[in-house]
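Methods — Computational structure assignment.
A single polypeptide chain was analysed. Its primary sequence is given first, followed by the predicted tertiary structure written as structure tokens.
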Amino acid sequence: MSDLSARLGLPYLMPAQAQKHVTHNEALTLLDLLVQLNVQGFGAETPPAMPLSGQVWALGPAPSGAWVGQGGQLAFWNDDTWLFVPPQTGWHAAAVTAQGAELRLFDGADWVAAAAGMPDTLPGLGVNAAFDATNRLAVASDAVLLTHDGAGHQLKINKATVADTASLLFQTGWSGRAEMGTAGNDDFSIKVSADELTWHDGLVINRMSGKVSAPNGLDAHTVTLDGSQVYAHETILGAVSQSGGVPTGAIIQRGSNANGSFARFADGTQICWHGFSSSTSAGVTWTYPAAFSGVVRVSLTPNSTSEARVATFSGRTETSVLVHLFAPDNTRLSHFVEMTAIGSWY
């Protein structure tokens, strides 16, 4: 049987050994040195002038003074003498200095950063969560920070072929509700789902042209791009509206009733038109099919070109106008005419 332990070289007590306490204390001293190994520094070359009992240095290749010839050893100051122990491959040592804490690994030749001793690849990693064959990186946390080590930072999501998917998937109770990325092709899309089974494309950006499309339409009253309101087919024609002089509805509105037809535009312009017969005596009052706001300009077009026609307009308001039609001899006529009124609806 060896006198020393296989791994740490601790001396054994032997049968009938005299002064067993000496051997026992030597083993305890080595344990005190090696367990929870904490060194004053790595690559040390010059012994300190006044070391403290229990302090350890990981020596460099060519130390001087009391350390001469002990290159690469662990130097342990024990009361009043130096004890030297050769490190073994795989040992870890920590150093806490004014510059901070450092953990190193002995690789058989030198003390290297602990990360350098780690394998290049891992089967998976779980941070407060368990990874699996699909989710080889799993993190359970209130937030995840990815910051820069230099000027910027990129998160890269790579796929093998065009038909594969590279995306960010947002879930509720582990069921997909929204996804953005290149799913099944190389066009960038943003889609949503109510049940993870049926998906609806919100926006699609063509990979060749960069053009944006909305396969399911846009709500032009709420959607803006680059500060400008977006209009879809269903909001070109519709009810116009405004707020504080700023258009908020459709571009053009068309309508008609018993008083004629009208067209309203998003910039505030309104045009009304109607055809009717003018009375020979009292004239006729035309109530506009849609009310104006402000000054209204009215014009008349006779339905006949056989003789000249002259019209007068009186009692003009934002809602109606009184029309009289005259012949050149200043006699009133009853004749079918076309009327047009132009103004602003706000």
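Note: The chain is about 5% helix and 40% strand.
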